[in-house]
Amino acid sequence: MFFRAPEAHTRSLLKAVSWRILGSMDTFVISFFITGRLTFALSIASVETFTKIALYYFHERLWAAIPWWRPAVPAPVEGAPAEVLPAAAAAATTA
Predict the structure, then answer these.
(1) How far apart are alpha carbons 12 and 6 in whole angstroms?
(2) Could you tell me which of 75, 80, 71 has the C-alpha nearest to residue 1?
(3) Closest by CA position to 15, among listed 55, 64, 56
(4) pLDDT digits (tens, 9 = 90+) for 20-31
(5) Are 20 and 49 in contact (CB under 8 A)?
(6) pLDDT tens by residue, 3-52
(7) 16 or 81: which leads in pLDDT
(8) What is the DSSP string of 5-70?
């Protein structure tokens, strides 16, 4: 299945950090190419690393909250143990 259940906060944060490492390396190379100065390139890359981690994390959490194009939670199977049901379905059966 292409889309899955909402992601955990920790996973979103780890994705933000790993993406930012790659993005910051790109920013460093471009900054160094344009300025020709190592200190400028390092300064630009280090500042944007932290700001863009935060921006990406909140962007990811916003999208995690939007239900567009997500499959509906399958109906619980009668007699199925709760641990095999998706979390939302399990919560609905216990309420």
Answers:
(1) 10
(2) 71
(3) 56
(4) 889 889 999 999
(5) yes
(6) 565 778 888 788 878 888 898 899 999 999 999 999 999 999 989 888 88
(7) 16
(8) SPPPHHHHHHHHHHHHHHHHHHHHHHHHHHH--HHHHHHHHHHHHHHHHHHHHHHHHHHHH--TTP
Domain boundaries of the chain, sorted by first residue:
9-94
Q: What is the pLDDT of residue 75?
A: 66
Contacts for 49 with CB less than 8 Å, ≥ 6 apart: 20, 21, 23, 24
Q: Give the Å distances, CA to CA, from 23 to 32, 35, 61, 83.
A: 14, 18, 19, 38
Return the DSSP state at 75: P
Amino acid letter, residue 83? E
pTM attached to this predicted model: 0.52
